[in-house]
C-alpha cells in the first residue's frame, strides 16, 4: 500500500501494478466483480438528518451499488432566459436524464437529483468486519454499544443450510439466541464508520489501466515475458504456472493451516497450492490491517 492508498503487487520482482489488475486476471473481470469481493450492500438513508462532518461523509463519496435512471427536471416554458453560459449549462444538466451505474460515486449532483425525485434510499457498497458475538454482547452490557450492529452477510447454519440471520438485521437478543443455539460464535457486521467503504479499493481501481480479464492477462504477461506476443490462453497458462502449480508453490499441510489462521479462511488441509480465494483474502487482510480493524 503506497502513500496514496493504492494497493500494488510485484510478480517476480518485476514492475509493480495495481492489485485489482491481478484480481481481473484471476477471473474477477469487472469493477462490479471486484467491489462485491470486499463489500456488502446496504441501504443508505438519504432522508436522515446529518449535521456532523462524519455524518456527511457517509453520503457524498459513497459507491453506489445499483444502476439508477434518474429523470431530468421538466422545463418551465415561461422561465426567464438565463444570461450566463454557466447557468445555461447547469439548467441543461438538470433537464437531461442522468444514468447512474453501479460503481459510480454518489456526488452532490446525484444526491440532489435523488432527493428532488423523492427517492429516500439507495443501495451502496459498505465495508464489513468479523466480530465475536460474545464480545459484542459484553459491549452492549457495558453500555458501549448504544446502537446494535447490523449484520452484513447472511449467517447460515452449516449443518442445515438454514439462514439464521439475514443481512440488514440488527444483532438483537433474539438473533443472538438463534446463532448461539446453532453454535455460531462469529458474524460479519457492517463497519460503524462515517465512510461506508474502504478507499483503498476505490483508489486502486482508479489507478488500474485494465478494464477486463483479457486486458489484465495481457498486461501481466507482457511484464513476465516482454517481447512475446500474448494471447488469452498463453497468458493464463503463464499465470497458472506462476501461482497455482505445486511444483512452484507447495504450501504443505502446515503452510495451509498457517494461511487459514492468519487470513481467517477455511480451505481444506489437503489443498496445498494457492487459490484465487487466497489472493482475495490477502488483499482483504491488508485492507483491514490498514484500517486498524
For the secondary structure, the number of strands is 10
Overall pLDDT, averaged? 85
Count, helices: 12
- Biggest pleated sheet: 2 strands, antiparallel
Distance between the termini: 16 Å
Commentary on this structure:
- The chain has 293 residues and is α+β, with helices and mostly antiparallel strands.
- Helix content is 40%, strand content 13%.
- The protein contains 12 helices and 10 strands.
- It has helices at 19-25, 31-38, 53-57, 85-95, 108-116, 133-141, 173-181, 199-207, 213-224, 232-243, 252-263, 276-290; strands at residues 8-9, 17-18, 40-45, 68-70, 98-100, 121-126, 128-132, 155-156, 163-165, 186-190.
- The strands form 5 sheets. Strands 1-2 form a two-stranded antiparallel ribbon.
- A hairpin with a 6-residue loop joins strand 8 and strand 9.
- Helix 9 crosses helix 10 (232-243).
- The protein is flat, with a radius of gyration of 23 Å.
- It starts with 7 loop residues before the first strand and ends with a helix.
Features:
alpha+beta, two-stranded antiparallel sheet, 40% helix, two-stranded antiparallel ribbon, 12 helices, 13% strand, 293 residues
Structural topology:
Blueprint: E1 8-9, E2 17-18, H1 19-25, H2 31-38, E3 40-45, H3 53-57, E4 68-70, H4 85-95, E5 98-100, H5 108-116, E6 121-126, E7 128-132, H6 133-141, E8 155-156, E9 163-165, H7 173-181, E10 186-190, H8 199-207, H9 213-224, H10 232-243, H11 252-263, H12 276-290
Antiparallel strand pairs: 1-2, 3-6, 4-5, 7-10, 8-9
Amino acid at each position: 500500500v503506497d502513500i496514496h492508498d493504492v494497493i500494488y503487487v510485484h510478480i517476480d520482482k518485476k514492475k509493480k501494478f495495481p492489485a485489482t489488475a491481478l484480481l481481473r486476471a484471476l477471473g474477477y473481470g469487472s469493477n462490479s466483480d471486484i467491489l462485491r469481493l470486499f463489500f456488502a450492500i446496504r441501504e443508505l438513508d438519504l432522508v436522515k438528518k446529518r449535521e456532523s462532518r462524519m455524518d456527511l461523509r457517509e453520503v457524498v463519496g459513497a459507491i453506489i451499488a445499483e444502476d439508477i435512471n434518474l429523470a431530468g427536471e421538466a422545463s418551465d416554458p415561461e422561465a426567464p432566459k438565463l444570461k450566463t453560459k454557466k447557468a445555461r449549462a447547469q439548467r441543461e444538466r438538470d433537464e437531461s436524464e442522468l444514468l447512474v451505474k453501479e460503481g459510480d460515486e454518489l456526488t452532490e449532483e446525484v444526491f440532489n437529483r435523488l432527493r428532488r425525485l423523492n427517492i429516500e434510499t439507495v443501495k451502496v457498497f459498505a465495508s464489513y468486519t468479523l466480530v465475536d458475538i460474545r464480545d459484542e454482547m459484553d459491549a452492549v452490557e457495558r453500555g458501549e454499544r448504544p446502537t446494535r450492529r447490523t449484520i452484513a452477510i447472511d449467517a447460515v447454519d452449516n449443518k442445515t443450510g438454514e439462514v439464521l440471520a439475514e443481512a440488514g438485521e440488527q444483532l438483537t437478543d433474539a438473533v443472538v439466541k438463534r446463532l448461539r443455539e446453532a453454535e455460531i460464535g462469529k458474524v460479519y457486521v457492517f463497519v460503524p464508520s462515517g465512510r461506508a467503504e474502504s478507499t483503498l479499493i476505490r483508489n486502486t481501481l482508479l489507478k488500474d489501466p485494465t478494464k477486463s480479464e483479457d486486458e489484465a492477462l495481457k498486461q501481466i504477461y507482457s511484464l513476465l515475458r516482454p517481447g512475446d506476443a500474448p494471447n488469452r490462453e498463453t497468458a493464463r497458462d503463464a499465470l497458472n504456472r506462476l501461482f497455482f502449480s505445486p511444483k512452484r508453490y507447495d504450501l504443505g499441510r502446515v503452510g495451509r493451516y498457517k494461511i487459514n489462521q492468519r487470513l481467517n479462511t477455511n480451505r481444506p488441509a489437503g489443498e496445498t497450492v494457492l487459490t484465487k480465494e487466497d489472493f482475495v483474502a490477502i488483499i482483504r487482510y491488508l485492507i483491514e490491517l490498514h484500517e486498524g480493524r
